[in-house]
Design brief:
The protein is α+β, with helices and mostly antiparallel strands. It folds into two domains: 81 residues, F0F1 ATP synthase delta/epsilon subunit, N-terminal (ATP Synthase, domain 1); 45 residues. 26% of the residues lie in helices and 47% in strands. It contains two helices and seven strands; from the N terminus they run βββββββαα. A five-stranded mixed β-barrel has the order 1-2-4-5-6. A hairpin with a 2-residue loop joins β2 and β3. α1 runs antiparallel to α2. The longest helix is centred in the C-terminal third of the chain and has 20 residues. The two termini are 28 Å apart.
């Protein structure tokens, strides 16, 4: 199976860039995967996990907070609002963000709007899941 170049870029840095066998992305309308020589496309992404299989066949994950994916025959690039690897996640902070979002979703008072709470809920959930998968 041919490899392709995958880049995951946040506004302040490149989080990941290397050759991979395949990758799966959290698109707004569901998760989907790509392999090398994928048709060119531009896709909106929601908060979730980007998973990829490296050239050696090992699974890896990056948590993103939404953004866009652009594919071409040569590779794919994720332009993420925010992206982190498991080693960069403070689990206690993610749990606190998750609880704050839950308060809003339950109708309790908060400085967050409902849209912000839903976004924070998805973001914190994916970060917690990433930490659990990397243990």
């Amino acid at each position: 199976m041919a490899n392709f170049k995958l880049s995951v870029v946040a506004p302040d840095r490149t989080v990941f860039e290397d050759e991979v066998r395949s990758a799966v992305f959290p698109a707004v309308y569901g998760y989907f995967g790509i392999w090398s020589n994928h048709e060119p496309m531009l896709v909106a992404l929601k908060p979730g996990l980007v998973s990829y299989v490296d050239a050696k066949g090992q699974d890896h994950f990056v948590s993103i907070s939404g953004g866009f994916l652009e594919t071409s025959g040569a590779g794919a690039i994720v332009l993420a609002q925010d992206a982190v690897r498991s080693s960069e996640i403070d689990l206690a902070e993610a749990e606190a963000q998750l609880e704050e979002a839950r308060k809003v979703l339950r109708g309790e008072s908060s400085s967050m709007t409902l849209d912000q709470a839903m976004h924070e809920f998805d973001k914190a959930t994916s970060r917690r899941e990433l930490v659990r998968r990397q243990r």
